[in-house]
Amino acid sequence: MRWIVRLVVLAVIVAAIGLWVTRPKTDDAELLAGLTPDTAHGEQVFIAAGCASCHMAEDADAEDKLVLAGGQPFASPFGTFRAPNISMDPEAGIGDWAAIDLWNALHHGTSPEGQHYYPVLPYGAYIHMAPQDVVDLHAYMQTLPADGTPSQPHEVGFPFNIRASLGGWKLLFLTDDWVMQGDLSPELTRGREIVEGMAHCAECHTPRNALGGLKTGADWMTGAPNPAGRGSFPDLTPPEMSWSEGELVEYFTSGFTPEFDSAGGHMALVVENLSQLSEEDRAAVAAYVKALPLE
């Protein structure tokens, strides 16, 4: 009996250590202290990050896209996730969030209540945002409308509905290391900030392992099946991606391919976002794509 008691005690200790190591992480407000918000830059961050593309109501159009009432479904092998209301309503949305709450959500995947967010919120990419980016984004979002539509629950079954397990997922896959390394030019550095960070391009264009983590190295941006089960996202590395930088910039601007086809599906929303960035930013994204594959 004594060895059974010891085994139970050991299991409890290991479990407690595991819960402590994988607990939701947060930073204190001092991290953002002294930063002056720039609402105009925050709008550019909002556009590059595709916030409205995911959090607008289904079939929203024109100015209604800025009413971030949520509700769009995102199917995956782990269940169907619903984009929450992130409008400025203090009850249904995030109107009562401070800038540090937004930082912790985007950087650590942690809610103001201290719970893990599912990585359908691409904090694995947003972790690359600088503190100033988040402060500016928070300031811009405060200028957007409030909407009282309640967020819809995710449709996720056991065991994926156990949020505590997400701490282990973060321990394995959440890192602020850049994937494209080396002595990069200013243009490539900016392209990396957009592609790997704000625009979270790899979330669609990079294959995943069995636990849903993005594969890096030679697999980075080599295309992936659509988690909703319809088609796939294209490989952005050569020889599959043969467009020139100029052709990529044109695609990001107008949505037209060199073959005079046009962007469709969710990519049409991505192009809509990219087209609102500066031409320099679109050129930086094109430069990043043409610098692939990684060695």
From TrEMBL:
Keywords assigned: Heme, Iron, Metal-binding
GO molecular function ontology, one term from the record: electron transfer activity
Superkingdom as given in the UniProt entry: Bacteria
InterPro entries with a match to the protein in the record: Cyt_c-like_dom, Cyt_c-like_dom_sf, Cytochrome_c-type_DH
Pfam families reported in the protein's UniProt record: Cytochrom_C
PROSITE patterns registered for this protein in UniProt: CYTC
Cytochrome c domain: residues covered: 37-145, 186-293
Protein name: Diheme class I cytochrome c
Source organism of the structure: Maritimibacter alkaliphilus HTCC2654
